[in-house]
Amino acid sequence: MRVKSETILPYSLLVPTLIFVILLIVVPIGQAFLLAFQAPDSSFTFAHFQKMANDTSFGDALRFTFLLLIFIVPMQVVLAIIMALLIHTRFKGHTLFLYIYAIPLAISDLAAGIAWLSIFTERGYLNSILNQLGIFDKPFLFLSYQNLPAMFGTIVVAESWRATAIVMTILLAGLQVIPRDYFEAADVFGATTLKRTLFVVLPLLRPSLQNALIIRTIFAFQTFAVVFALAGRVIPVLAGESYNWYVANRNPNIAAAYAVLVLIFTVAATWFYLHFFQTSAAEAGYD
Amino acid sequence: MAGIRFQSIRKVFGKTVAADSVSLEIRDGEFMVLLGPSGCGKTTLLRCLAGLEHVDGGRVFIGDRDVTDRAPRDRRIAMVFQSYAVFPHLTVFDNIAFGLKMQGRPRDEIKRRVEESARLLELTDFLKRYPAQLSGGQRQRVAVARAIVMQAAVLLMDEPLSNLDALLRLQMRAELKRLHQEIKATTIYVTHDQVEALSLGDRIAVMQSGRIVQCDVPMNIYDYPANKFVGGFIGTPPMNFLPGVVHANGDGPTVVVGESHLAPAPAFAHALSAKNGEPILLGIRPENLTLAPNQQANTIRARVRVVEPLGSHKLLTMQVGTEISKVSVAPDQRVAPNEDVWLHFDPEKIRWMDAATGEAISATVE
Ligand SMILES: Nc1ncnc2c1ncn2[C@@H]1O[C@H](COP(=O)(O)OP(=O)(O)OP(=O)(O)O)[C@@H](O)[C@H]1O
Ligand SMILES: [Mg+2]
Fold first, then answer.
1. Cβ separation A187–B71 shorter than 8 A
2. Ligand 1 centre from B235 Cα, in Å?
3. Is residue A239 part of a domain?
4. For residue A25, is it within any domain?
């Protein structure tokens, strides 16, 4: 009797989470797959994917999604590492920095996009400042389809601002669980701050880096609201196309096909990180 | 030249005074043992020397340099951490090589020196393993190897043998002693283990609640503990303490313990006479008590409670009045539990202490 209740208890504790995950994640994914692969007569079809691939925006969406990924993720990770290391030194006033860094965490991505829009737009804050400083006498058109690189740049900046904090938070948490002794041993044995960071801190931070990269990359594939606010559909991205097909073109099937594609990329990226950053069992765990 | 000088070091954690105005001078090449109960501030003192803790007062010198405000890496020391702090992401080889790599030594020199210290600590077979694949004792040896490979002028060891089995510990202790005679690094060695302290130390500093209560050569610490705490901390079993009262008359002082009158050694006659009528504490080591066949000078009646044959000697637990004393006798001594015996006190070996403060009373040198 006792044994039985002990084996049931852990599972029963998992039940609420399981229900949550099934209702909000598994079921919608299943529905998306159905929509993506089902013909009107309920038979299996690739037609939605063909139509998606033949769409004029598809190539651009694919290209821009990956371009954003390539520009943003490495830069963000480096930035987040520096920020986390800085805060970890506990310099005077480090909590203030932590609060400032954390602001974007509390802001929805669309709000962030609109905030940045008000900065970069023709009569926005940035142009007023540049104008007052006398650098430009005419407003600079950051957000013009004639100047794609500038537009792309504003998205990179806005996205970095928005999502670096989450990466930093994960890394800082990772830093804080590394026992201080390792830092101290490195110091005593003559490591400079740079060498200590390279040879002790970063290797010990690898599990957190892996998590941060996975989460950040998933975010990058889902990037949508910020791009939409700043660039409309001039710079299409995969998640944005999905939205567009669903809302503007009222075609849930092709929207679902995009969603499935994003899912495939996400899973592939996660698999890549898990393998690329694999820690051998021997190295895992602090003593 | 790398003597060490602590000058009135003070370190406070909240309300805990971990180092209370500690002054200690360690000569170049000396092996100093820090001995004391858990939480008395041994690690804190080492960390202040290593630069891992900012002192709240006082100065630290290594050689002629005031290093108080220097970073750890500028202090040119090697250290064995109490927690080992062996890097989990590096193999045993790379762990031991870490400091040499930071110094930018050539590869072949690193390899030679790492292999040499690995051999010394019997780690040769484990060089390719990661720390997670080692036992606690093996990890501890990696920590020791990582420190000695540096051949630093100052070597700090925080309980480096605490996790080894008895045999290996004995062996490593001798190895460390040999190594020290070879390298002559100025060494501070922290331990709880008084046998280790007596065997290794050129001098021993005994600590209690953030203070150094006595610092002397091992035999003096053992024979002439500065107070009750030191006598009671060192020795297995430690010193026995019996309360008595001083009686001074024309023939010189005696001390009444229970029903017996003990005559102190002449060197103490003067100091004890001054305490006529006052309570006093008699300290004596188990091996300085012997069983006497009958009542004679300097004997006290006692009852044997427990007899423990320990091979090289027999350990007796005795009841003396209301006090318990440990007595160490020859292994062939015939004695049975509950037997009443006469215990003889060697007056030359008695350490007299102030009953109130526990401080040892010094002999008058004539
Ligand atoms: N970082 C810290 N924060 C607060 N208190 C501390 C800290 N480090 C040490 N202490 C306190 O200072 C005192 C001395 O600690 P320390 O580690 O020096 O003792 P120790 O003699 O090395 O003991 P052990 O033999 O158990 O290692 C203890 O009371 C301890 O609780
Ligand atoms: Mg300690």
1. yes
2. 24
3. yes
4. no
CATH topology of domain B4-228: Rossmann fold (3.40.50)
Is the preceding peptide bond at B237 cis, omega within 30 degrees of 0?
Answer: yes
Q: Which phi and psi (to 5°) does residue B320 adopt?
A: -115, 105
- List all residues 6 or more positions away from B132 whose beta carbon is below 8 Å from its beta carbon: A281, A282, A283, A284, A285, A287, B88
- B40 CB less than 6 Å from ligand 1? yes
Residues of chain A neighbouring B51 (CB-CB closer than 8 A):
187-188
Return the SS3 of B192. coil
Contacts of A38 (CB under 8 A, 6+ apart): A44, A45, A253
Contacts of A191 in chain B (CB under 8 A): 73, 98, 102
The contacts of residue A235 (CB under 8 Å, 6+ apart) are: A60, A64, A148, A151, A152, A155, A227
Identify the CATH number of the domain in which residue A55 sits. 1.10.3720.10
Return the domain boundaries, chain B: 4-228, 240-354
Distance (Å) from CA A133 to ligand 2 centroid = 60
pLDDT tens-digit readout, A13-25? 999 999 999 999 8
Three-state DSSP state, A44:
strand
Going by alpha carbons, the residue nearest to atom 6 of ligand 1 is B13
CB-based contact A185 B52, cutoff 8 Å: no
Q: Which domain holds residue A146?
A: 46-285
3-class secondary-structure state, position B342:
strand
Listed by number, the residues of chain B in 61-100 with a beta carbon closer than 8 Å to a beta carbon of chain A are: 71-73, 77-79, 81, 83-90, 98-99
Which residue has the CA at smallest separation from atom 1 of ligand 1?
Answer: B13
The verdict on the CB of residue B191 being under 6 Å from ligand 1 is no
The percentage of chain A sitting over the pLDDT mark of 90, rounded to a whole number, equals 34
Q: How far is CA A71 from CA A74, A129, A153, A155, A192, in A?
A: 7, 26, 9, 10, 30
**B240-354 maps to which CATH number?**
2.40.50.140
Q: Is A67 an 8 Å CB contact of chain B?
A: no
Do strands B340-345 and B351-354 pair parallel, antiparallel, or not at all (unpaired)? unpaired
Query: How much of chain A exceeds pLDDT 70, in percent?
Result: 95
| Rounded CA separation B1/B3 (Å) | 6
d(CA B46, CA B35): 12
**pLDDT digits 0-9 by tens, B296-349:** 889 999 999 999 999 999 999 999 988 999 999 999 999 999 999 999 999 999
- ipTM value > 0.90: no
Q: What is the pLDDT of residues B257-270, one digit of tens each?
A: 888 889 898 888 88
β-partners of residue B190 are B34, B158
Optimal mutation site among A177, A178, A188, A286, interface B, most CBs of chain B within 10 A: A188
Indicate the number of domains in chain A: 1
- Using a 10 angstrom Cβ sphere, with 0-12 exposed, 13-18 middle and 19 or more buried, the burial of residue A281 is exposed
Asked whether the beta carbons of residue A203 and residue B132 sit closer than 8 angstroms, the reply is no
Q: Report pTM.
A: 0.81
Instruction: Please name which of A121, A32, A28, A61 lies closest in space to residue A244, comparing C-alpha atoms.
Output: A61
CB contact (8 A) between residue B81 and residue A184? yes
Cβ neighbors of A201 (< 8 A, separation 6 or more) are: A85, A175, A178, A183
Looking at residues B115-144, what average pLDDT do you find? 92
Q: Which of B109, B87, B96 is nearest to B142 (CA)?
A: B96
